[in-house]
Amino acid sequence: MEEKKINEKESLELISQMIQSTKEYMEIGSGNHFIYWGYFTAALSIVIYSVFQFTEWKSCGLLWLLMFVFWIFMEILNHRKHPTVMTYINKVIDHVWYAMGYMFIVTFAVILCISFIYGRYNALDLMMPLSAIYVGIGVTITGIIIQNKWIAYLPFVGIGLGLYMLTAIYLNIFPTISWHLIFGLSFIIMMVIPGHILKRKEKKAC
């Protein structure tokens, strides 16, 4: 009977350590994945908007390709900052975001091929709303896994903005340059805010 009580206590401690390790894994240096990605995307959206305003370069949206460069940078940084203990939950979160990353690549490749075939490069406008939806789903799943309601529910705002843009395109409403700012705003809401909330809880836990 005594052995059963000890096992239960050890099980609770193990679960607690796994959750704590997972939350620590979310951090990179003085920030975390969400904060880095959110601020970078928001800043890039402002840069693209500003470039268009000053130069009227119609293909300024191509600057979004810098997201792939930033992704590579984050992957390198992520490998250097791996925790000493890699839990099953850590691996699940990793695989969720790897799946989302591959969805980005496949979506971009398919849209690019169709654009070349039909000579209609405005199809690339679909990348913004689809990206907002993909990221929103990824953040929501992450929030559910680590049992954080803010991270789980705030992304629905970004998903809603993505669906708004996607519906507008379907209704032949021509995208405007302000859409880039809307896209950046969606990342502030579904990544930056949850990221700071997570950091604040981590500081209190310490």
Automatic annotation (TrEMBL):
Q: Membrane-spanning residues where?
A: 34-55, 61-78, 99-121, 127-146, 153-171, 177-198
Say if the entry is tagged with keyword Transmembrane helix.
yes
Top-level taxon of the source organism: Bacteria
Keyword list (alphabetical) reads: Membrane, Transmembrane, Transmembrane helix
- According to UniProt, the name of this protein is Uncharacterized protein
Give the species.
Answer: Prevotella herbatica
